[in-house]
Amino acid sequence: MKKSATVEEMRCLAKIYYDVGEEGIRKNANKFFDSMDTKRDGKISLYEYLGFMASNHDGPLRQPKWFHKLDKEKKGSLRREDVRTLYYMIKSGRPFCIGCGEFVGTVYFTCVECFNVSCTLISVCLECYEANSIHHKHNQFLDNFALLEFKRTGLPLPALKAPAGNPQDSHAEYPENTKELRRIAKAYLRSTLEDSQEQEKIKKFVDSVGRDFQNFMKDKGYQNFLGLGKKLELNCRDIDNFFKLLAKDPENGLDNSDLETFYYILRSGRPFCGGNCGLFITGTFFTCSEGFGEDHTKCFYLCRECFSNGKFEKKDKFEKKDPLILDNYALLHVLGMANQVKTVPKKNTPSNSAIVSSSGQ
């Protein structure tokens, strides 16, 4: 995703939360707007924006350029929809890249040591990671999907040792719908070249799948590789569709790079949708916070479309009548705020969600 598109991505996610999220989210998003609207005229001027942000937020979003980026109608003022987008950006903990300084609205790589010690997001975007544009005292990073999976399972994940990128890499051959995923997988593979144990696991995995992908999936052969056993359940309802997604060239089967991407998918806990579509989720997913920290057989994941359109059955999926459902970015931020370093205790529900909270801090 191009960085210029990230505000629209945030706007889309903010709308989903406001339209179908729990009532507390809507109430607090409106309170956030009202606390900024000092003139009580239903719109936010640049003066109001800068004054509010100077008092309530510490970071680049205080800059006037963000007022203009959020102003969808380009009329010199922000409407409720614009401010809801800002609210989501703040409350989901989206970072700014320490390389280029830009807002990161999609996947990012975070310093594991800083996150574990202080839950601080010292992060870089995918482009800067690939270009080795990381200037930080520590050199072990995980992408936000892999970091969330580490916190869910407590299993050690080989951290990506920066710099692991190669600015000479070309991604032109990657299918557009999986390009970002393949780029992350490639960075992961490159960063573990000196980790003989991880390299051996990858080799065994690739050899085990071989050319019999259908039976490998049906027999759940993937359960033998990550130490999770039967707790790892992909819930793949359409193996043919997943095969086509993985294969750069479906007619010629899966090559090594396709299988290495599959290995990264398992490593980082990327899920399949538990809603009506049942498809693999290549980007942002939603999950119930009350079940997070359980094994994959008990976690329930939704793609953006199924969550926003209500295309899933709540019955028997959630213990609570009105569960708190968060996207993976917001959930990682909540868990970081709770300072849960090793793993997420069973049935732990982060009720004081950053999304639900109305504070401007």
Describe this structure in words.
The structure is a single chain. The chain is mainly alpha-helical and 361 residues long. The protein is built from 15 helices and seven strands. The chain has a four-stranded antiparallel sheet. Helix 8 crosses helix 15 and helix 9 packs across helix 13. The protein is globular and about 65 Å long.
Summarize the topology.
Elements: H1 6-20, H2 23-36, H3 46-56, H4 64-70, H5 80-91, E1 108-111, H6 112-118, E2 123-125, H7 126-130, E3 140-143, H8 144-153, E4 160-161, H9 179-191, H10 196-209, H11 213-218, H12 239-246, H13 256-267, E5 286-288, E6 301-302, H14 304-308, E7 325-327, H15 328-337
Antiparallel strand pairs: 1-2, 1-3, 3-4, 5-6, 5-7
Helix pairs in contact: 1-5, 2-5, 8-15, 9-13, 10-13
